[in-house]
């Protein structure tokens, strides 16, 4: 009889390097929102990919983007400890590090700091389609590997190319699986509540249509969700800091808010496999 195995993998990297996109591709579900806006991911999000046939459960943690401050190592170590504690002291023995396509010494210094954790690292160099001269890519990868003994491998990737998840599991992840009963239910894809997912989907669409005009601290609260047989009715409130933000979100003749509602409904429908109707109202923070 095959024993159940699990692995917990934090996905780390600077803000806006593509961690959430990779996270969604790994679990084959759009849970973590993506945007060109910095600090889009504001809290840790857990995604689960369970192989019921081979009794393997892969747990990925999408983390907010970090800054390499003086306390960088201490903060990362603290996060790793919190992950271990949440998963009943399971050992974190593999990290996914997502790097930008810029081939500079910043990444080498970053990896040197991570070496102190003494945890194996699988590196994804994202957005390689934007690298003008790819002749420098291979020597750059070799230099990164040479400078850190904990690098498991380096995978160049881009959103335009298909990522062979099963190959990555087989060759680079499965070695680190731990014999332990599944932490989550077999059919579960995330630990996030329906309310959280709905709010994130709406927040993503607002950022997409307003860009840097709206601060990322914009707040969305779900007033009520009505689940019916063939439709989900969502009543929510958007809270902004300034009166001008309300005009920006609504747009000329309500064009932006209509696009936000329409695309949010489509995205939420894909997630819940039901028709969706969203009712918005926008309000400004009093304090």
Which structural class is indicated by helix and strand composition? Answer: alpha/beta
* Share of helical residues: 25-40%
Question: How many helices in DSSP terms?
Answer: 8
Shape: globular
Roughly how many Å apart are the termini?
A: 60 Å
Low-confidence stretches: 37-41
Instruction: Round the mean pLDDT to the nearest integer and report it.
Output: 82
Order of helices and strands: EHEEHEHEHEHEHEEHHE
Largest sheet: 7 strands, mixed
**Topology, number of strands:** 10
| Percent strand | 15-25%
What Rg do the Cα atoms give? Answer: 20 Å
Summarize, please:
The protein is an alpha/beta fold and about 290 residues long. It is built from eight helices and ten strands.
């Amino acid at each position: 009889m095959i024993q159940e195995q699990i692995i917990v993998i934090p996905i780390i990297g600077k803000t806006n390097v593509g961690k959430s996109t990779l996270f969604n591709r790994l679990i084959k579900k759009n849970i973590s929102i993506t945007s060109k806006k910095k600090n889009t991911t504001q809290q840790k999000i857990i995604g689960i990919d369970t192989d019921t046939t081979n009794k393997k459960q892969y747990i990925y943690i999408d983390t907010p983007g970090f800054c390499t401050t003086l306390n960088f190592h201490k903060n990362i170590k603290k996060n790793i400890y919190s992950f271990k504690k949440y998963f009943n002291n399971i050992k974190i023995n593999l990290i996914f590090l997502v790097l930008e396509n810029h081939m500079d010494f910043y990444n080498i210094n970053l990896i040197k700091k991570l070496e102190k954790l003494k945890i194996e690292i699988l590196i994804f160099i994202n957005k390689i389609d934007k690298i003008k001269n790819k002749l420098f890519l291979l020597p750059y990868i070799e230099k990164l590997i040479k400078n850190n003994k904990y690098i498991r491998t380096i995978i160049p990737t881009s959103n335009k190319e298909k990522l062979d998840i099963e190959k990555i599991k087989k060759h680079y992840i499965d070695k680190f699986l731990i014999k332990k009963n599944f932490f989550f239910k077999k059919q579960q894809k995330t630990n996030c509540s329906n309310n959280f997912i709905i709010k994130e989907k709406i927040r993503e669409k607002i950022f997409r249509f307003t860009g840097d005009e709206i601060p990322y601290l914009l707040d969305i609260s779900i007033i009520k969700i009505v689940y019916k047989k063939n439709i989900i009715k969502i009543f929510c409130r958007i809270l902004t800091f300034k009166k001008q933000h309300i005009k920006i979100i609504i747009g000329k003749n309500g064009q932006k808010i209509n696009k936000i509602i329409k695309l949010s409904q489509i995205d939420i429908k894909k997630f819940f496999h039901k028709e969706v109707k969203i009712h918005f109202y926008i309000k400004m923070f009093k304090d």
